[in-house]
Write a structure and sequence with these properties.
By secondary structure, the chain is of the alpha/beta class. Helices cover 37% and strands 15% of the residues. The strands form two sheets. It has a seven-stranded parallel sheet with strand order 8-7-6-9-10-11-12, with helices on both faces. α1 (15-23) packs parallel to α13 and α5 packs across α7 (153-164). It binds nicotinamide-adenine-dinucleotide. Nicotinamide-adenine-dinucleotide is lined by residues 76-77, 97, 100-101, 104, 149-155, 172-175, 205-208, 211-212, 233-235, 259-260, 282, 284-285.
Length: 310
């Protein structure tokens, strides 16, 4: 069934999503460079507004969007959309949280190997002409205990990947973890403190909420083994970065890898300067496959909503 309506795409998104909306009968204006003044003056004619990370959909833009039925974010969070203002005007706000799971889980594995084998240092010293082989005695992932904090979409993907590397899984989640997943992976389900004191690697996959803010504080970090590594690809605010700095600096924690920070780009120079910290600039979902899937998922949701199916 064809649908009618006008879609404004304000950020660069994968062509597959645009093609899918056009095939269904929608008129799509692709303006990935649009600036706020232009957006405010032209937004009133559109039924659907699509963004990724660049464009902020503020209250002012929402008030100008007289015809809007849907605001869509081709990504996971909704940090750049004033959801309250949209909902007060009965505009549906949608995103594609499931599209990035594989990409983020694979990055977490990459960060674990980077920490265990000191890959950033191995790379930079070799390129500088320094043969530091004897300093780079690493450890294997196989046989180690991986603690997964938050066993949702990404946590479960990571668990399956880690099992294929012969790691043992420990999991903590306030919501019961499915029996099928536990029997498939052999995950030991426990409380957070037991997970922290038993794991060789701890990987965080929780949402940013009032409850998870600074859930990794000095007390929790002190419960981890001094030989353990902490990996965060979820949200920066769940780790108290000052407490992490102290734990890494004093050797109470062997290393940490962060894809996300309390402030992005990060400003905590002391933390960034530590040799046992590996950093990436929030690239968890930055794969061609995840971006394509997110655009397709959003296009499909837009079409279904306009058809009145969901
Ligand atoms: N680095 C990136 O680019 C990137 C990309 C995608 C998602 N993310 C982030 O990854 C995180 C996980 O995403 P997801 O898709 O797996 O979400 P999800 O909702 O599928 O899973 C989150 C899990 O965390 C659990 N949880 C909630 N509060 C908890 C607590 N206090 N302690 C332990 N577990 C708790 C939930 O019950 C749920 O099972 C989110 O913060 C998301 O924003 C980051």
């Amino acid at each position: 069934m064809q649908v009618s309506g006008k879609v404004l795409v304000c950020d660069s998104i994968d062509q597959a999503g645009i093609d899918s909306m056009k095939r269904s009968g929608l008129t799509v204006d692709y303006r990935p460079e649009i600036k706020p003044p232009e957006l405010i003056s032209s937004v009133k004619d559109y039924d659907v507004i699509i963004v990724r990370s660049r464009t902020k959909i503020t209250k002012e833009i929402i008030e100008a969007a007289a015809s809007a039925k849907i605001i869509a974010r081709v990504g996971v969070g909704l940090d750049n959309v004033d959801v309250q203002a949209a909902e007060s005007r009965k505009i549906r706000v949608i995103n594609a949280p499931e599209a990035a799971s594989i990409a983020v889980a694979e990055l977490a594995i990459g960060l674990m190997i980077s920490l265990a084998r000191s890959l950033p240092r191995a790379d930079s010293e070799t390129k500088k002409g320094n043969w530091v082989k004897k300093d780079l005695m690493g450890s294997q992932l196989s046989g180690k205990y991986l603690g997964i904090v938050g066993v949702g979409n990404i946590g479960r993907h990571l668990g399956r990947l880690a099992r294929s590397l012969r790691m043992n899984l420990i999991g903590y989640d306030p919501i019961p973890i499915s029996r099928e997943f536990i029997s498939e992976t052999g995950m030991i389900v426990t409380d957070l403190n037991t997970l922290l004191s038993s794991s060789d690697f701890v990987s965080c996959h929780v949402p940013a909420t009032q409850e998870t803010k600074h859930m990794f504080n000095s007390d929790r970090l002190a419960r981890m083994k001094p030989t353990a590594y902490l990996i965060n690809t979820s949200r920066g605010e769940i780790i108290d970065e000052n407490a992490l700095y102290e734990a890494l600096k004093s050797g109470k924690l062997a290393g940490a890898a962060l894809d996300v920070f309390e402030v992005e780009p990060p400003t905590n120079k002391e933390l960034l300067g530590l040799p046992n910290l590996v950093c990436t600039p929030h690239i968890g979902a930055q794969t061609k496959e995840a971006q394509q899937l997110a655009a397709i998922v959003i296009a499909e949701k837009v079409i279904q909503i306009l058809r009145g199916v969901i």
